[in-house]
Amino acid sequence: MKIKCKPFGMGLKNHAKKILLIMKLVILFLTFCALQISANVYAQTKSFSLELSDVSVKDVLKTIEQQSEFRFFYNDDLSDVNRHVTIDVIDLKVEDILNRLFDAKRISYQILENNLIVITPLNLLKPQQATVTGSVTDEKTGEPLAGVTIQVKGTLTGAISQVDGTYRVSVPQDATTLVFSFVGYQSQEVAISGRTVINIALKEEITALEEVVITGYATERKKDIIGSVAVVQTEEMLSTPSGNLTNQLQGRAPGVTISSDGAPGKTGRVRIRGFGTFGNSEPLYIIDGIPGAIDMINPNDVASVQVLKDAASASVYGARAANGVIIVTTKQGKAGETRITVDSYAGFSYVGKNNAPDV
């Protein structure tokens, strides 16, 4: 069994360090207390005699600073230190003078160490608010309305009415108007005017829907159509060099399949969402509002192409639209400067040597 013994001198050294640290803390605490007591004693013993007429409160505080060790800390924009006063006192303490200069309901001050006096407005510490209560009802039936939004105009402060129509909202001191709003009722603005109870009856908002007359998909805007409609941009179609419109539609609209047997000059077969059962599977072509043949149209004359792919098109074009509808609108004359454009396209078709008959 081994016993380790610390040197005698090292134990005394650690003990001395602890005692020195405790002494430093005690001296620091006593110094702080002495400064605080000194500030309080100085404020209780120092008196002032002032005789000032029609001067600002700021000037009064400067005079006190010149005659003593007090220093004041405040905001220069504070209205209470910029107003003019007349003061005539003899042998008054600084606290008594400050009580005469400031309203205790508006201004608070505190004497700190080193004779520093901090002046603070109370409205910065605790903003004043008022509570407004009341009920919201239907003007026609008198029944309470639940879920009505009550908002202080110009702020994000608000509340919602309860099941029995009552509400309670805290409003800032400078608030002037409450806004009552509810779905199906007219919004109303009510002036607060210092009232704490405001009861209101909301009027129903009656709006008439506009009549809608369907004249055909060709004259409707795309965002107004509830059916499945694909709009093909003319610029994209013309980027494909072809002499007929159906080949240019290939791959431009989802759900539209175009195939061809490759015969020279022959148009492609168009199928919209598969094959139909009404006679043939060809879609209905509407050109400027009139049914027609799409292979007779010059692609450069096309202004817009719309593809109607669902059964809603049958409500306008009947059974002929069972396989879908392709609406083509050609270019029209427009007001403005005259523009002349020239487009050219050249191509050739031939029969391969291996496919030609031996004659």
What can you tell me about this protein's structure?
By secondary structure, this protein is α+β, with helices and mostly antiparallel strands. Helix content is 22%, strand content 29%. The protein is built from eight helices and 19 strands. Strands 13-18-19-16-17 form a five-stranded mixed beta sheet. A four-stranded antiparallel beta sheet has the order 8-7-10-11, with no helix packed on it. A hairpin with a 4-residue loop joins strand 4 and strand 5. The longest helix is centred in the first third of the chain and has 38 residues. It is elongated. The N terminus is likely disordered.
Question: How is this structure best summarized?
Answer:
With 359 residues, the chain is of the alpha+beta class. The chain is built from 8 helices and 19 strands.
Features:
359 residues, alpha+beta, five-stranded mixed beta sheet, 8 helices, elongated
